[in-house]
């Protein structure tokens, strides 16, 4: 092959030399300029001067023009006939010069065209040289070089033979013909090499295709053999599947028959149970009504007794006032008689002795004070404008308290739930447990009152519910607010006021405090302020979390606690594990807070409502910051029937995030019809006038009767935005139907639970399916409409979470609505759904639903709680950061006053 290549290259080289010799031949028209033209030019020049360049032609042309101009200035005629020959000579000279000028201009045009062609040829040659210097040029490169050399030669051939450049053009043409021959030769060599390479590549390609053909034939044989084996295997599998399918259908038929018998038996037992429950309920209802009648009678007797005592107290007060008035009048009479005797004695002395000047007999007496008025030097006020300090600006509006204005009092239960008697019923008042929680009131006096007695009194309705202390050199001392014992006198008296309870159904939370100055039993100055208890509020689920509380149940929930810590601690919150506490931490207490103004700041205090059920098993849960926690019980324990035993759990009392008209959120609760959430607590919420009126939600169909089983508010990544998750049995049924439609009917759901089954088996339980669809249509859909109406929710704020419920109202698989938002993460029960390609299908569905909100989800293993018919939120409790914006600045324009 190499020998053939070398022979081809030698032939092409010889061919290129021949072509070069032929093309180098110079045309006759270029090589031999016209002799007549040269002679004409030389004959016309003066003194034998012949132009040799274009610039000399330009000079010759200019000189001829000057000579013609000079002849034109010479007169054409002469007065002497003898000089006529001179005129003829001038005309002859003028004609000769004109002809010479025309010839020179013609030559200039020829030279200009020649120079233009010369320059073009040089540019083309430069391009050809540049292309020829390319590294590893191909045949196409040499072909382009050949084309440029040919164009350059053609440009040179356009130079006329009369031109001064004709000789140089001939030399250049010979040079370019040589370069053209080289380019042609190299082009032929390159083409030969490329042809050889193409032939070698073609040979290799044919060999490759032949190899591929053989490989394809081998694979085809293997494929057909494998297909034959696969058909045989599939036929065996089909026969085995048919056999198993027949066996499965037989088992399903038997299982359906068994379940039908169980269902009938269950319905029979359920009817019997409901009948017993109905009878028991009627019995308990009669007993409850009797107890309520007796309680109403007892309260009426107590009210009459209180009224009787109040009338007696008022009568005693009236008699005491009359006694004091008589004593005051008697003292005044005696004082006037004494002054009269002194005056008479003084007159007798004046008659017996020289009269002194008036100045020498004057005795200092205190400046008179107008009785009954509040002079400027008698200042009595609290923090009326809630700016954290007390000054003259707090005078305006101090007599009328409202949610938006007026001095606030803190609830400060000194017993902290240890006493058997409610604090407000105790008559003995000790020093405050925490002076920092006292609401300060200032009484500032002038020296004119130093001989007066000062008293602080409270209205009779509020008196049992507050305590007042005076700050003295010996610490805080209790103040008698009945008006029997005066204050320790000072011109700057600092008082501290605390509330023994919040506003409730029996007390609106306000108190009228009156400061009185008396001289000899006569009131000489007084003024009144009105104060109110700072309302108790609940932080919504969208608020940041500082602590998550859970009860240690031993090994049964150890894995749950471990996963809880792994999910919570990275968010900055703490996990508090309580030993031996109740299982359902959410029901034990509802953590809330109160606000109090402070100079350039806001003071926040944690206050928890403690459950009244099983008090010996339900101690208050202390926070990590124990000193900040107050605990209060509202109402009395109720004896509820077993069906409604969880109605009073605090999982059944929830609050929304801020919504239109309710900037601090609005409370909602579960109403089971027969036994709603504790009415005394609801009245307590209403009395706070901040997060009410509470909205009742129908939970009569739920086993626990608690609203947190079906509704939850979840914060999104956008600050201040949230979505509402609501349980949707219809979505649960559709999820199962979707799985079966995709061919996953045999996949297990409720994995590892007592309700474990398959997708198809669940769908074939028509009673269960119809029960859940009934709940959606008759219960959940009306609830959704009510929530949209009461909370002004949009459809895009509502997420319907797939859930299914058993006949008695428990979550059939772990309830993902009963979840806990913690600082950007949502703690959710692991639904133990069908595993599709290694992914829990139900978990993935929730992630997709929450994806637009940007919520991060952590699934926790709560099998222990699921078998007890509860989930993550029921098993935990949270301490959330209070709202940092003062409630009095957040009230709507039509806010409660």
Summarize the structure in words:
This protein is an alpha+beta fold and 897 residues long. 46% of the residues lie in helices and 18% in strands. It is built from 18 helices and 29 strands. Strands 1-3-7-5-6 form a five-stranded antiparallel beta sheet, with no helix packed on it. A four-stranded mixed beta sheet has the order 2-9-8-4. A hairpin with a 2-residue loop joins strand 5 (466-472) and strand 6 (475-478). It starts with a helix and ends in a 7-residue tail after the last helix.
Q: What gap, in angstroms, lies between the N and C termini?
A: 110 Å
Name the average pLDDT. Answer: 82
Question: Strand sequence of the main sheet, in spatial order?
Answer: 1-3-7-5-6
Q: State the helix count.
A: 18
Kindly estimate the percentage of residues that lie in beta strands according to DSSP.
Answer: 15-25%
Number of strands: 29
Low-confidence parts, pLDDT < 50 over ≥5 residues?
A: 1-6, 15-48, 353-374, 416-429, 621-627
Main sheet record:
5 strands, antiparallel
